[in-house]
Amino acid sequence: MLSLSLLLSSASSSASSHFVFLSKTLTLTKRSIFSSLTTMSINLSSHAFAGNPIRSKTPKPDDPLSPSSAFESLKAHLLQNPENHPSPKSPLFKVLPFRKGRPLASSSVTGDNASVWHPGWISLSDCKGILGKCGVQLTEESLVYLGSKAEEGAVYWAIDVSEEGGLVPEFSSRQFCFVELRTLMVATDWADSLAMSELAIAGHARALLEWHNISRFCGHCGEKTVPKEAGRRKQCSNELCKKRIYPRVDPVVIMLVIDKENDRALLSRQSRFVPRMWSCLAGFIEPGESLEEAVRRETYEETGIEVGEVVYHSSQPWPVGPSSIPCQLMVGFFAYAKSLEINVDKEELEDAQWHSREDVRKALAFAEYKKAQRTAAAKVDQMCKGVEKGQSLSADFNVESGELATMFFPGPFAIAHHLISTWAYQDPPTGVEAQLKQLSSSVSNL
Q: Structure pTM?
């Protein structure tokens, strides 16, 4: 394989020849690395909660679907008399209610008898009417702009109805129910692009609403905050302060630590994990710290392992954490160990062990992730019909023989799964290979 410096120097004659040469070389390099590999990992076009279709592009301010224009149309709709019809140029409004962080959902059964959940979108008029039955007047400040779809002429909103207990029977009569987002995440068929996009919308909505709940007061002067820009930011109501407040994102590094010489990976358990579940190390980034530094620090603090090279894999929004941390951004890495002796910090972890590639492959092969997804989807269907049955998560990962797998990992909805499966079935790039991969991505975007 050509070195990176040789590739760059040989292409210095002109910009055009540089990019042509580099692109061809990267293509050949990628083929030589991956052509002989057969992967059993589950490949996604994007991680769960990523790939939100209504956030891909923000319309211009004068576009009827933009936040400012849609907000003005929303106010006009809420003020108009019931007998008046909306303007023909007015967009279609769809509202997704949330209760205590749980989105409204419905469920249907497909031809192959599989349950599929859907976000419980309701029209603006239905939302206004249902709230009105509970004695609540719908105002524009209670709705948060999520995005739009130009092809549908639709604008999507979210609303928190946690304080209105009378809404639950009303929605139940329509076979809607409020479901934990984490349950919906497990219930989502990762092979269904539409279902994945709906999960991303629900995740974005929950993150925004939970952020609104924890930012009710100004952190500078203590006065109340008010929503601005259709709920996309907030501002202090104190005329002497007027501090602007934007949605919070908490970055977290998550890493699979690899012992390359002995073909092993470091996996850990936390006390809150269900029995037999193992995952990657992870930790929040501290102020003044780079991503790579956070990977090395967290690994050493939790396991005593020193890390050298750190290689980026991918990132994933994670809006299913505690309400005090509305949306974490998981930034995934492969980290290569410089030391091997484990010294577990028992305040952080229950255990950490090296696992061979063979054992990890067996666990991935035996864990029935599809079965777990179908079980969760059936549970959502029962909830929406008013019949809920309990189900142990660990029971969803039986091997085909009926025996329990000795260990399993988070499902395909989690970035940890893809870090582990990528290592198990194909060697992650290191050194020059990693740099070539990053350059390949840059060239493809030119």
A: 0.82
